[in-house]
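Figure S7 source data.
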Amino acid sequence: MPDDLLDRIRLNGAVPHHVAIIMDGNGRWARERHLPRPLGHRAGMKAVRDVVEGAIAAGMEVLTLFAFSEENWQRPTSEVSALMELLEEYIAREAAELREQGVAVHVLGDRTRLVPGAGEAVERVERETRDGRALSLNLCISYSSRAELARAARLLAEDVLRGAKRLEDVDEDAVREKLYTAPWRDPDLLIRTSGEQRLSNFLLWQLAYTELYITPVLWPDVTRQVLFEAILDYQQRERRFGNVTA
Ligand code: FPP
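Tokens for the predicted farnesyl diphosphate complex:
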């Protein structure tokens, strides 16, 4: 079945260059099974693996996943610790295979807040996968879009104060260059799982002209098939970027 979808994607032509995903619904998935929430996150880790492989198979170039928001630090300590441990486990288990698959991992967000073990794991996986050319996998961890924009404003103010930039040079491109996502094009497609219809402080600048796809599937139940269905839906869209149809 996923292979049929992949054939249809290839026949349609243009695959989205960059897909961003808000991975939501791990808690509900666990609750439905009377399991503790961390087990929902653990099941979510398996979905990450399948979707990364699907992204490579589809020929996408960038996949950006919202794994842990700045707001998530307010969750119970036990859940935060479980998520940090999962991050370390994901890296320990997957780093070698990601490198073999040609995936370059990047972590976007305030990494100064990560516990030392997770911080070291993040640096290790970035170092070990930096030559990957098949897919850039951006993991947004301790990330919030407003904090990213405030950071960009601060960095630009510093440049102006020390004379590296003139005030009149502070334009859209200058802001873009200070975002964590500076190396990549804006997402073409945003997928949100679990049926919620909001952006939750994710990539507010970068999503200006991104196509949205919301699926009711809870993140731990997501497979590459959901990604392929979203891509097929995207391929039917007409993107106008504020212009009129040709
Ligand atoms: C949102 O579900 C999901 C998260 C806060 C964590 C996402 C983490 C993973 C998918 C696993 C780890 C991933 C990596 C890359 C190591 P929720 O808890 O808000 O669900 P709910 O809305 O149903 O409560």
